[in-house]
Structures are given as C-alpha cells and as structure tokens.
Amino acid sequence: MTVNDAVAKRISKLLKEKDMSQYRLEQESGIQHGSMQCIMNGRNKTVTLSTVIMLARGFNMSLIEFLNDEIFYSDDLEIEH
What is the count of structural domains for the chain? Predict the structure, then answer.
C-alpha cells in the first residue's frame, strides 16, 4: 500500500466517523476538488506533507491525530525514496 492509499483510507474512515461529506472536507481544508479526487481515486502517487496538514485542519484535528492510525504503522506501507 502506498502512502497515498493510506491517506485516502484514513480520509474515508474519518469522513464516516465524523459524518462529514467530501465536499465539506474540501471546503474546510481548502483542497481543490480535483486534487481531492486524485487522492481518493489513487491517481496521486505521493501526497505532500502540506496536503496532509491541510486535511488534518479540515477535520479540525492536529497532524498527529490524523496520522495516529494503525494504517500508517503497517509494515506493508511503501515509502518511496
């Protein structure tokens, strides 16, 4: 699983937990719809730290809270060099 895949799965999980629409997340985070679609559809190869920070803010949480999920601790997570 790529980092982008992990971020997309984390977004989906948080959207469900917070009963939030993707549109609202885009509005709250300032991420363009096209960019969000690329993340969610796996067309984005790597997501930047800036984007992850924007996502965390959109969910009204800290970066640490966003990243505090077992999906980011997986040994199967592919880290590009």
Answer: 1
Nearest to 14 by CA among 67, 53, 51: 67
**Please, are residues 8 and 45 in contact by the beta-carbon 8 Å criterion?**
no
What's the pLDDT tens digit per position in 22-74? 999 999 999 999 999 999 998 887 899 999 999 999 999 999 999 999 999 98
Residue 68, classed as helix, strand or coil, is coil
Which backbone phi and psi does 78 adopt, to 5 degrees?
A: -85, 120
> Does a structural domain hold residue 76?
no
Which helix (H) or strand (E) is 20 found in, with range?
Answer: none
